[in-house]
Design goal:
Blueprint: H1 13-34, E1 56-61, E2 64-66, E3 79-84, E4 94-103, E5 108-118, E6 121-124, E7 131-137, E8 142-145, E9 152-163, E10 168-178, E11 185-195
Antiparallel strand pairs: 1-2, 1-11, 3-4, 4-5, 5-7, 6-9, 7-8, 9-10, 10-11
Length: about 200
């Protein structure tokens, strides 16, 4: 229903046609305004980037929201972090292994991020000694692995917090992997916050 009324004062067929056309256009405009989508954007579907040990992870994979989900019956938790071999009191020098998967009707993907000599800072994935990322896509059969010499790789893993007393490790990540025969993998806006 329109929030106004129109009164026709002329008996001319042309005037009635013009008014009816105007009413139809205004009705269409009002209807299209009321049909706006309130669906969140892919970025809005991700958890916030926090540093409190909230056990959250999310990223965009080729522009779509990617969150741990489902169970395949073999791998336990769909988001886990192991952290060990600490060589200094502030938590630096340890190893870090993040494993997560998304196993649903439409998605069968496993992601892993591993770092050596851990400390707060930036780890370029081109450093194949201390950094390794991979994603295996069970639906397409593609295996993206940053240490393979045939893989184009770019991006960073950033550790933003290590607190061994409170048991928190948090960070962000983004990377691109290109493997012959597979679509380019672009992971952006990645964030994790894990209690360890």
């Amino acid at each position: 229903m329109l929030p106004f009324s129109i009164t026709i004062h002329s008996s001319s067929t042309m005037d009635r046609y013009n008014v009816l056309t105007l009413v139809a256009l205004l009705s269409t405009a009002a209807a299209s305004n009321s049909c706006r989508s309130d669906d969140p954007t892919p970025l809005e579907q991700l958890p916030p980037a926090t540093q409190e040990g909230l056990n959250t992870l999310g990223c965009l994979v080729n522009g779509k929201a990617w969150l741990p989900d489902g169970s395949d019956g073999n791998h336990g938790s769909n988001f886990s972090v192991s952290y060990g071999s600490v060589t200094s009191p502030n938590g630096s020098g340890g190893s870090f292994d993040l494993r997560t998967y998304r196993y649903t009707r439409d998605t069968d993907q496993y992601m892993n991020i591993s770092l050596n000599d851990l400390q707060v800072g930036v780890y370029p994935i081109t450093d194949t000694v201390n950094t390794r990322v991979w994603l295996e896509d069970g639906k397409t059969g593609c295996y993206y692995e940053s240490r393979r010499y045939t893989t184009y790789r770019a991006g960073n893993i950033t550790i933003t917090k290590i607190d061994t007393r409170k048991g928190i490790i948090a960070g962000t990540f983004e990377f691109t992997l290109v493997v012959p025969g597979c679509d380019t993998l672009r992971v952006t806006d990645g964030r994790f916050d894990k209690g360890i």
